[in-house]
Amino acid sequence: MRILLAEDDELLGTALRAGLQQQGFHVDWVRDGSAALRELQAVDYEAAVLDLGLPRMDGMEVLQALRQQGRSTPVLVLTARDAVQSRIQGLDTGADDYVVKPVDLHELAARLRALVRRSSGQASNMLRAGDVVLDPSAHKVTLAGKPVDLAQREYDLLHALMRNAGRVMSREQLEEKIYPWGTEVASNAVEVHVYHLRRKLGSELIETVRGVGYLLPEVVRSGE
Question: Where does the record place the OmpR/PhoB-type domain (predicted)?
Answer without folding.
Answer: 124-218
